[in-house]
Amino acid sequence: MNTQEAIGIARDWVRHVGSQQSGFKGAYLAGSVLTYPRLALWPLSSDIDIIIVSTNKQDKKLGKFLYKGLLLEVTTLDYTLFLHKETILADYHVGYSFAHTIVLNDVDDVLVPLQKEVAREFYHIEWVYCRCEQVKEKSIAGLTAIPTSAPFHEQVMSWLFPTGVLAHLFLTAALENPTVRKRYTAVQAVLKRFNMDDVYEALLKQLRVESIAKSTVQSSLELLEETFALAAEQAKTPFFFSGDITPSAKPIVVEGSQSLIDKNQYRESFFWIIATFCRCHIILATDAPHLHEERLPYFKQVLSSIGITTEDDLYSAAFKTLSTVDYFWDCTRALIENNPDIIKKKHGD
């Protein structure tokens, strides 16, 4: 199916399933589908992101699931987030998707006019800076709060994501989608466009993958595939990421990572390989502790390839990245000032 047909299936799910939920107020598209060519074949290694706007708080994220042969990922956001445009414009994840979205359903005729306002002001420099500052603070907060009492695989997760958030600084400054899984591929293209290749290498250095070998990444993915299969089979306890560790989500994780490796973007693929390893071990530690212990040496083997073998290595890596935040912030400001698509005149001037 092509992208347009995939959007049609997403719309159908909203009409017949999503809109039947208690508190449903509307739905819109997010993620890579917003910029993917409408007549191009929709890739099997991608899902369609749907945001449900609801007055009901959801205890469990619907996550990823198949619907009419298409992999959907559904996230629910609180309706109060959409009461004021300023709240959305200041949020780097919600702001981008809502400014570029297709509204699939709008019960109270609120989302469509609000989306037009957000789209109009999204490019103003004060909002760009506001969103970038949110990214910076998120990275700092995460890097200074690695839980020392948590199991090692959870500590790795707590180090990995705020380190990877730094890539979102430049995607946000470039007015691009702050994508999750393929953030390093996306930021590489952005920084190349702005002649900031040295900044890109500095980002990879924070992740400790600047010199990793392709063969190492390939073998790491093969180890992950085995652990993934076990975690998907054993999973019973719901986690916010549970939908990412299922047989239907395997094409995104395994085939998606393999595709990057085949394109020689193996350094870029390593972020999601580690992230998925962490998630698999969180599941196994809870639902199949014997398998968690059995597979843990393979996880540690993968981490050792980037020089992380102990908790102290994680804290040291986090401290080094914290010391570079000012450098990355200065580079972000330079990109903003050189980005011709940003409206430099402040709103109201």
Describe the structure in your own words.
With 349 residues, the protein is an alpha+beta fold. The chain has two domains: 3-122, Beta Polymerase, domain 2 (2-Layer Sandwich); 126-328, no CATH class. Helix content is 57%, strand content 9%. It has a five-stranded mixed beta sheet, sandwiched between helices. Strand 3 and strand 4 form a beta hairpin. Helix 5 packs antiparallel against helix 14 (325-338) and helix 6 (152-173) packs parallel to helix 7 (183-193). The longest helix is centred in the middle third of the chain and has 22 residues, at 152-173.
SSE layout:
Blueprint: H1 3-16, E1 24-30, E2 48-54, E3 63-67, E4 70-78, H2 85-89, H3 92-100, E5 103-106, H4 111-121, H5 125-143, H6 152-173, H7 183-193, H8 197-207, H9 214-234, H10 250-262, H11 266-287, H12 289-304, H13 311-322, H14 325-338
Helix pairs in contact: 3-4, 5-6, 5-14, 6-7, 6-11, 6-13, 6-14, 7-8, 9-10, 9-11, 9-12, 10-11, 11-12
Q: In a nutshell, what does this entry contain?
A:
By secondary structure, the chain is an alpha+beta fold. 57% of the residues lie in helices and 9% in strands.
Key traits:
about 350 residues; 5-stranded mixed sheet; alpha+beta; about 55% helix; Beta Polymerase, domain 2; single chain; globular; 14 helices
Strand order of the largest sheet: 3-4-2-1-5
How far apart are the first and last residues' alpha carbons, in Å? 47 Å
Query: Mean of the pLDDT scores?
Result: 95
Residue stretches low in confidence (pLDDT < 50, at least 5 long) are none
Secondary-structure element series: HEEEEHHEHHHHHHHHHHH
Structural class: alpha+beta
Basic shape: globular
Percent of residues in helical segments?
55-70%
Write down how many β-strands occur, each being a DSSP E stretch of 2 or more residues: 5
**Main beta-sheet strand count, sense and barrel state:** 5 strands, mixed
Strand content: 5-15%
Number of domains: 2
